[in-house]
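Reopening this ticket.

The earlier resolution said the output was attached, but the attachment link was broken on my side. Pasting everything inline this time so it's all in one place.
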Amino acid sequence: MVSSSPKVQSYMGPLLIIAVLFSVFGFLTWVNSVLIAFFKQVFDLSTVASNLVAFAFLISYTVMAIPASMFLNRTGFKNGMSLGLLVMATGTLVFVPAVRMVSYPLFLVGLFVTGIGMTVLQTAANPYATILGPRESAAQRISFLGIANKLAGIASQYIFGGLLLTGANTVASAASLEKIIAPYLILTALLVVLAGLIRFSSLPELSEEQDNPSSSPAAASQPVSAVQTRIWQFPNLILGVVTLFCYVGAEVIAGDTIINYGRALGFNNDEAKYFTTYTLYGLLAGYLLGIVLIPRFISQQTALRFGAIYSLLLTVATLLSSGFTSVLCVALLGFGLAPIWPAIWPLALNGLGRFTKTGSALLIMGISGGALLPLLHGYITDTVSPKMAYALLLPLFSFILYYAIWGHKKTSW
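Inline output:
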């Protein structure tokens, strides 16, 4: 026990640095739920048009994931993350002229640029979480990072929800856009400072050897990278990308649409503005439970199965209930979603060896589910009904369940 202490300490410092980055991810990602509701009022948008906030922010993961992997191979992960933070700072700064010009498209440009920087960060940070310790406890470490992510997301709701959506009986106007400037200038400054801190931090550089199958007992039992010559020959990865696509789409739908769903059911701004925090509290509870249970009491595969089944049941409950009960069912999806992300990464990257960086980039591309699926959800909301739009979650969670039971085990097509 004592002899392992230095190793634990050597992991803890880098893990805390990655946790700070995950907090940045969480804050800037989850504030989108407030922006969606706010811009919908200010610019009098349809549901589909307001969901372009999530689209602009997350589609960058598809556009930039592979280039980000190539960029990181050239610059190294630490330098790349520092530059990614500076790109994010550029994106948040774009919000200032967007306010002055009262331009929704320019806000979307700022979100897209911010998403590009975050793509670089995510591509680098997620493999660290898998590699900084034994692979069998990777889901536990990602749960820890998820807690940092969700706590920052909760903070974003209270800060921006209180700032932008307070006032039950008022209609947001173009003049209210001015309230965005100060917090986004502060965010810009913080991102620049964090870029400098990361650049001169003690974060170790990631090497391919660190994720070599032979270095991990779990991977050693599946040394496929020794015989596979193309990234597409890893079914556990390709199916994992699709699973991540489904998961992120479901998470964004559960978190970013719940405020507008509540308003569609008759709740006013003051009542609905913190609905996303309910989803985040569910995610937070799930991550805390994951740290306690995985892998000591249950495997990450079992946690993934539980998350999919639980979420399927809650989706059915959302469709069959009404009023605040239906809103609460959407929020409680957070608890079922929590174990899914941490479990997908180690299962999808298992045995990739020298393909790990490219595999990570492909998984990052799966985040585009959060860009595309909410648009489909918005279309169903506008053309059918807000409640029936949540039926879209049923096939998403069904595929996640398939991956949890069978898909992650496939070693060939």
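Reporter confirms the inline version is readable. Residues 147 and 284 are 6 Å apart (CA to CA). The domain at 5-409 is CATH 1.20.1250.20 (Growth Hormone; Chain: A;).
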